[in-house]
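Objective 1b of the project was to move from sequence-level analysis to a structural picture of ligand recognition. The entry below was assembled by the postdoctoral researcher (A.K.) and checked by the PI before modelling. It contains the amino acid sequence of the target and the SMILES of the bound compound, S-adenosylmethionine.
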Amino acid sequence: MRMRKKKWAMPFLQENPDFVLFDPEVNKGQWKSILGKDKLHIEIGCGKGDYFIEMAKREKDDAWLAIEKDYNCAAVAAKKALEDKPENALMIAKDAQDIGAWFAAKEVDFIHLNFSDPWPKSKNSKRRLSHSNFLQQYHKILSDDGQVILKTDNQKFFEFSLIEFTHSGFELVDVWVDFRKEDHPEDAITEYEAKFMALQQPIYRAIFAKVMI
Ligand SMILES: C[S@@+](CC[C@H](N)C(=O)[O-])C[C@H]1O[C@@H](n2cnc3c(N)ncnc32)[C@H](O)[C@@H]1O
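Corresponding predicted holo structure:
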């Protein structure tokens, strides 16, 4: 569901240029040195930010970069994140459709897709963050041992993603059809995930590794 427009959102994002970036291309090839870390995680579609904020706190030795195209969500996430003044995280407030131009080849180690919009109608399939147009870009920017980690509540989106990844230079290395049935304290729960867990819905999760093509 779309978040209601917040008058303060855009001014807030613009008032925090050290944390929220609108022109990510300028940092291409320099993300790890800017954040002072050896491993770079990106979360595409971070929503209100619960996942990357928590993971950046837990995994302080890694860099975390969260991408969100909806300015209202991005502002809520940035406000929350800035309460902790994280040194190992940044945000990009922009549609990820040209993500391949924001990073040098092999610059990213992990891509997290959490509860991406499923876009159920096939006429909108290109908007899915696991469409092959996105996967080709992920493949280019991921390191040779890079991975994409995907969680969703949506079975159809999950099935689509499994096929799309295996046809786009990735192999499936791990899969869960009810991820939260067991405890997974190593992985933070997202805002959407908490809602689906409260409804007792299964959480699908897959890890895809880049393979050479
Ligand atoms: C269903 S919400 C999930 C939010 C969060 N990941 C969670 O699990 O709670 C999907 C989010 O992805 C964002 N999004 C979808 N497509 C995107 C794109 N191409 N670039 C950046 N953000 C995108 C949407 O604006 C929305 O905030």
